[in-house]
Structure formats: C-alpha cells, structure tokens
Amino acid sequence: MYVLGLMSGTSADGVEAVLAQFIGDPNNPKWSLVNSVSMPYPVALSEQIINVSQGLELSSQEWLELAEAITEIHADAAKTCDPQRQSELVGCHGQTVWHRPCTSNKRGASLQLLQAPLLAQLFNRPVVHDFRSVDLALGGHGAPLAPLLDAALFGRINGWRAIINLGGISNITLIPPNSGPDRCASVMGWDCGPANTLVDFAVLKMSNGALRFDRDGLIAASGSPDEEIIQRWLKEPFFQKAPPKSTGREEFGLADLERRLKEISTFSNEDMIATLTAFTSAVIAQDLDHLKSLDLVRPIELLVAGGGCRNLTMLRELQRRCLGMRVLTVNEYGIPIESREALSFALLAWWHLREHFGNSPVITGAIRAGILGIKVNPA
Questions:
Q1: Which stretches of 82-182 are DSSP H helices?
Q2: What CATH number is associated with residue 158?
Q3: Residues 121 and 225 both lie in one domain
Q4: Can you give the pTM of this predicted structure?
C-alpha cells in the first residue's frame, strides 16, 4: 500500500513529506521510500508558531487562521510529493504548539494544529491524524511515538541499536539485539532534552534576527564549550529523571535559554553557541551512560536523524562523547535525515488501517497499548 506521511516538528521550520510503500507483517514490514519533499514554512508563519509555543496570545480568529494556514501548506507538500496521487492514505502529525507531559497528579495533553477534514478534501485522500490523544487518554505521555516505528523500519542487529532524532527536541530509540540474553527485552525510548531549540533561539538573539540557526555548526566550531557549565546543567532534575518522560519548547524554550545565558553572560557569542551545542550532545551521551542503571548495555550503533545532522559541530560532539559506538546518519540507510519522522507517521497511518497497536506502555507510561489516530475521509 502506498501511504503519504507528513510531519512538522518542534523546530517549526516547515513540512516534511514522504511517499512510501508498505507490505507484509506490520511488525516487520517490507517498505520502500518512493519520494520525499521538504516544504519550508513562510518565515512569518514559522515565527508565529514558535511565538505561540512561547505563550503568545491569539484571538479565536487568529487561531483558526493559523490552523488553516498550516493545513494548506501540508496539502501543498502532499501534492508536491505525490503529484500522481499514488497514495491511498495520508498520515499527518500536524503542528505541535503545546505539549504538557503527564505527572503523578495531572494527565498529559498535547495540541497539534491541523484541519484534517480540509486536508482530506484538498488532497482527496483519507487522512489519519491526532496520533497522540489515545495514548494520553490512557495515562501516557503521548510521546515519543517513534521507538516502535523505528524498530519496525530499521530492524535489529547483533547488538543494541540506538536512534537519535535531533529536531527542536532530541529523543532516543533503543532497539534490542537479534540474539543473546537481551533479545527479549522491550524496545525503549524517551525524550532526552533540547536539541536545536536552545541553539536556534540563541543564534536568533545574538544576530538580532538576522540568522535563524547555526548553519553547518560554523559558529559553534569557532568557539569553545565550557565543560564545567555543561556538567552543572546535566545535574538538573529533568536530565536525572528516569523514563518514561517527554518534553518540548514549553520546558526548553526562551525562558530556559534566558536562565542559561545569565550563567554564561561573560562568554563570547561563539563560546555561548559552542556551549549550547555541546550541551545537546552531552545530554544524549549521559542518557546512554545511564543505561547501566537499567541493567542494559550501551548500543554498538547510533543512528542520527533530524535537522541537527546538518550541524556538523553537534555531530562531532556526539561522536566525541559516545566513544565505542558506530555513529551514522540515517542517510546511510536510504532515508533523508529530515524524512525519518514523516516516514514514521506514514507507517503509523498504515498501522491504524491494519488495527495494529502504535504505542508501548514501557515507552509512554500508558496503562495499555492502543490503536492510534483518527481517520477522516474526503467529503
């Protein structure tokens, strides 16, 4: 079956679209990537999405128009990626504008903007959307959803395999080996913390809006990270918390950046960006080091996806801090670095149609697994 996947992440820089084919066993499907497209948001729309996630108040009319604009760009991305309308189904995540992790006394919630019936009408295909709400209703975090999908798409090797997504937020997947005493272990995953979000906000601030990100990590490469500060930040409660856990710009956004900048106010711009960039990699490395507390061994392979792969300094820091692992990008498995999540939501839509469970209580903390997503048809 041909399925179109659409995804816009916490970086809010645009829509990633993939056209993929899935056949066979949902747990171990045969799949092929037919096409992929990146469609950037207009700068004003991207800024509005980010500002909303940082507390910008909108009128009812502005909320409606924001959701409509996001939907129309998703439809344009779909038409560009699949001009011949090969797809029979669309899986669309929508645009996250707020995520509230569950706590011991309050259920979690997550808001993704999308007018799914409009998208189904504009593209003339059924759309599966709202993937997180079932897991949230079952007491889970609603995130991350990628780990089970990663296990199905990438499969197992002869040791533990990790997959890291470097979007606005970093999240990790751990896939057990295909043999040995850990072969019956569960697939695991959680949100690690900030990936590009703090770096992007800092670059925007230091350049007075002229730059939106550190292209190729060149600013960070010209500075020196402060290891003492990084080690202090790594002791913060979120980074010591055991999974399941999820997060977003709500926790690692502008307010968090301002707090950190006060601690490094004497740094040059280059050292500031270098420290924030190295911090992202250090958070991931620390999570991998903590695996021994879960009676697990470190992975032998680390696959990296997401826009952060283009930050060569962040990648070098990751390689430096994750010694003993083979660090590769998902490009080497035939998946463009920014397409992994869109491919995952295409698979999740196919799973919905096959009535296959899409979440894992081990990963999200839900009381049980469920079939994720809501399907709407063109009128």
A1: 116-123, 133-137, 146-154
A2: 3.30.420.40
A3: no
A4: 0.95
